[in-house]
Design goal:
With 111 residues, this protein is α/β, with parallel strands linked by helices. Helices cover 40% and strands 14% of the residues. The chain has one domain: Rossmann fold (3-Layer(aba) Sandwich), CATH 3.40.50.2300. Helix 1 links the parallel strand 1 and strand 2. Helix 3 crosses helix 4.
Length: 111
């Protein structure tokens, strides 16, 4: 889905029931090299973090996590991306939590 559509950011879990998140990361990176990808997963080994970052993930956050930290990491990724600069200006004007904001478009995929 994210390989075909135009999203501002992808939050990717590696532990998906039918697909391997690392394979999805590889696929997305080849199709959308400029799309920010944040890996949010229960895999917390250093080897997993290094592998994903070397494959092109822009950030990696292990579970359990703080929603305020996730929100800050999303804002940071959006600031660094070309498409996200406009969305970040909009985000900085709103005091609402990130999960209530309709923009930017974030891909959520449950398999």
């Amino acid at each position: 889905m994210a390989g075909e559509l135009d999203f501002d950011l992808v939050v990717l879990d590696l532990n998906l029931p039918r697909l391997d998140g690392v394979s999805i990361l590889r696929f997305l990176r080849t199709r959308k090299p400029g799309m920010p990808i944040l890996v949010l997963t229960g895999r917390t080994r250093v080897e997993d973090r290094v592998q994903c970052l070397d494959l092109g993930a822009d950030d990696y956050l292990g579970k359990p996590f703080s929603f305020s930290e996730l929100s800050a990491r999303i804002r940071a990724l959006m600031r660094r991306s070309q498409k996200g600069k406009r969305a970040c200006d909009w985000l900085s004007l709103n005091a609402k939590p990130w999960f209530q904001i309709p923009k930017p478009r974030v891909a959520h995929a449950w398999v």
